[in-house]
Design brief:
The chain is α/β, with parallel strands linked by helices. The protein is built from 13 helices and 14 strands. The strands form 3 sheets. Strands 3-2-4-5-7-6-12 form a 7-stranded mixed β-sheet, with helices on both faces. Helix 3 packs parallel to helix 5. The longest helix is centred in the N-terminal third of the chain and has 15 residues. The radius of gyration is 19 Å and the shape is globular.
């Protein structure tokens, strides 16, 4: 076990993968100087500019090159800086990376990891503060991961690099400095984790909202079971169903806009399977404001989660 930040944990996962397999490469803007969050610190010096590749400012070019690399047998780790910028590469992601394995009968696989940090980024306004994970969970052929802790950012990324399919890897923009104990063990894709046991309400969440959820669970008058999904596709239905069978109440909480958010998929699945009571709590359907009072309106806080929990019939 070692104490390290969320950013350091992800850098360690990439470093170990590159040392183990020379097919693993990194490409994107600013990766040579460590990335804007220092999630690639020291890697270009260690592995050289031919494996940690600084690219032009063109997300479509970056992703298109990565798809070709993957089809040729490399394992690209693709840096999109933030998910908001990845929108410039949607054709390459949705029509190429996601569909190649199916369209060519498995003859070609696009084993890449596209790192697209999500979430509110303080003082960064509407074009830098989006949570778009539901877009990618909707696309057949994509795996979607959302690590909330340093351990998960190490373990999930290690598994994502070895996955063999395109993984949309969505770290949170405000978690990079979060510190935690990290063990040298992987975290399997598609497996949720129960962080707090409870008997009255199951609270399902992911990414940075997990930390507000744990705080809320301690403050609530209810006995709350907290589940971090960790991977949105595939998501761990069995763990969630088992918990809600016990509590008979489900609250899904996410920072993304509530309307058509991935929480709706979870709520519908549980309602159809066992008829439990379900509620959702997500962001309002407005752009994130630059002014702090407007930005705060879009934040999902522990206090708002407590209100949803304590008013659950």
């Amino acid at each position: 076990m070692a104490l390290m930040s969320y950013a350091e944990a992800s850098c360690l996962a990439v470093r170990q993968a590159m040392a183990k397999d020379d097919k693993v490469v990194v490409l994107g803007e600013d990766v040579g100087r460590g990335g804007i969050f220092q999630q690639y610190k020291g890697l270009q010096k260690e592995f050289g500019a031919a494996r940690v590749i600084d690219t032009p400012i063109s997300e479509a070019t970056i992703m298109g090159a990565a798809v070709g690399m993957a089809l040729a047998g490399l394992k690209p780790v693709v840096e999109m800086r933030v998910v908001d910028f990845a929108l410039c590469a949607m054709d390459e992601i949705v029509n190429q990376a996601a569909k190649a394995r199916y369209m060519f009968g498995g003859q070609g696989r696009v084993g890449l990891v596209a790192r697209m940090p999500i979430g509110l980024w303080s003082g960064s306004a509407a074009q830098h503060s989006q949570s778009l994970e539901a877009w990618f969970a909707h696309i057949p052929g994509l795996v979607v991961a959302t690590p909330a802790t340093a351990q998960d950012n190490y373990g999930l990324l290690a598994h994502a690099i070895e996955c063999g399919d395109p993984v949309i890897y969505m770290e949170h923009k405000e978690l990079w400095g979060l510190r935690g104990e990290v063990a040298a063990e992987g975290v399997p894709l598609g497996k949720a984790r129960i962080l707090k046991s409870g008997s009255e309400v199951t609270l399902v969440t992911w990414s940075r909202t997990l930390h507000a959820a744990l705080e809320a669970a301690q403050k609530s008058k209810r006995s709350v079971e907290v589940i971090d999904l960790r991977t949105l596709w595939p998501w761990d239905r069995e763990t969630v169903l088992t918990s809600v069978n016990k509590t008979q109440r489900l609250l899904v909480v996410h920072e993304a806009v509530q309307a058509a958010g991935f929480g709706a998929e979870i709520a519908a699945t549980i309602a159809e399977a066992i008829g439990a009571r379900v509620k959702r709590l997500g962001g309002p359907r407005v752009p994130v404001g630059y002014a702090k009072p407007l930005e705060d309106e879009a934040r999902i806080t522990a206090e708002r989660i407590v209100g949803a929990l304590d008013n659950f019939n």
